[in-house]
Amino acid sequence: MKDIRKVGSIGLKTVVYYLCTTAFAITIGLIFSNLFKGLFPAIATSDLTYEAAETSSFMNTIVVIFPSNFIAPMSEATMLQIIVMAILLGFAIIMLGEEAAVVVKAVNGFNTKQARILPPPQVVR
């Protein structure tokens, strides 16, 4: 994928697919919960209390999405920052074109090695 427009098109299709499958799963869950709600006893929740954590501002959330360096999100397992890093790195590689051929070759080689090391998923029957 050497064209950013093509990447954007695939990204949009992925988001639409995700939203549709999520809506489908929610619909199935609501249908089954309404069909079978009389079969399960209710759990007493009257004595439970909850205190919401302090909310952060929208601008703080946006600032936190972007990591201060490339190592910290991986060491702290901050998935949103890892995803943002991967997207930015991917766009940078696409924009560099042939200059990034060595990086693309290394990533593809690593991917091939990982595919050989990890066993394929087993189908449970």
The helix/strand order is HHHHH
Please tell me the overall pLDDT. Answer: 85
Shape: extended
Cα distance, first to last residue? Answer: 37 Å
For the biggest sheet, the summary is: none
Low-confidence stretches: none
What helical percentage do the residues reach? 55-70%
Specify Rg, calculated over alpha carbons: 22 Å
Number of domains: 2
Number of helices: 5
What fraction strand?
Answer: under 5%
Structural class: mainly alpha
Number of strands: 0
What does this structure look like?
Helices cover 65% and strands 0% of the residues. The chain is mainly alpha-helical and 125 residues long. It has two domains: 1-40; 58-117, no CATH class.
List the helices and strands and how they pair.
Blueprint lengths: L3 H33 L21 H8 L6 H5 L2 H18 L4 H17 L8
Q: What is this entry, summarized?
A:
This protein has about 120 residues and is mostly helical. About 65% of the residues lie in helices and about 0% in strands. The mean pLDDT is about 85.
Features:
125 residues; mainly alpha; 2 domains; 5 helices
